[in-house]
Design goal:
Belongs to the eukaryotic ribosomal protein eL21 family. Pfam families: Ribosomal_L21e. InterPro entries: Ribosomal_eL21, Ribosomal_eL21_CS, Ribosomal_eL21_sf, Translation_prot_SH3-like_sf. It comes from Cyprinodon variegatus. Keywords: Ribonucleoprotein, Ribosomal protein. Strands 4-3-2-1-5 form a five-stranded antiparallel sheet, with no helix packed on it. The protein has a domain of 71 residues: Roll (SH3 type barrels), CATH 2.30.30.70. It has 149 residues and is an alpha+beta fold. Strand 3 and strand 4 form a beta hairpin.
């Protein structure tokens, strides 16, 4: 809603867990500016963006972020303090799917069977009859325009 704002129940000192997180080169992180720490803040155009860590210092991390400039998307390198950064959960579901697929492949190899690893779209709903016994059909029509003078 608002950029760089701490909302109700999250005001006050920054939790120490923020400083205990470990960032390594190649980590995917989300940039979210925290208004309580003005040092090392990201510019507003990077707020809410996701990037990859390319440099780690004592109090900050260097991040490569994609930024649209007119018709081009440029890979920008920015330095942001760790208070304004957190690990991204965007890759978690993918890594979980990879583990699950590896388990399925191993199981299929042991059983000598073939297994489908691709994600399938949700199938259409089964055919069914709609009962009108206690559910009378309703006529829907627009309300006529009434001029108010």
């Amino acid at each position: 809603m608002f950029m760089f704002v701490f909302f109700l129940y999250s005001k006050g000192p920054i939790p120490l867990s923020t400083y205990m997180r470990i960032y390594k080169k190649g980590d995917i992180v989300d940039i979210k500016g925290t208004g309580t720490v003005q040092k090392g803040m990201p510019h507003k155009c990077y707020h809410g963006k996701t990037g990859r860590v390319y440099n780690v210092t004592q109090h900050a991390v260097g991040i490569i972020v994609n930024k649209q400039v007119k018709g081009k998307i440029l890979a920008k390198r920015i330095n942001v303090r760790i208070e304004h950064v957190k690990h991204s959960k965007s890759r978690d579901s993918f890594l979980q799917r990879v583990k699950e697929n590896e388990r399925k492949k191993l199981e299929a190899k042991q059983n000598g069977t073939w297994v489908e690893l691709k994600r399938q779209p949700a199938p259409p709903r089964e055919a069914h009859f709609v009962s009108t016994k206690n559910n009378e059909p309703q006529l829907l029509e627009p309300i006529p325009y009434e001029f108010m003078a």
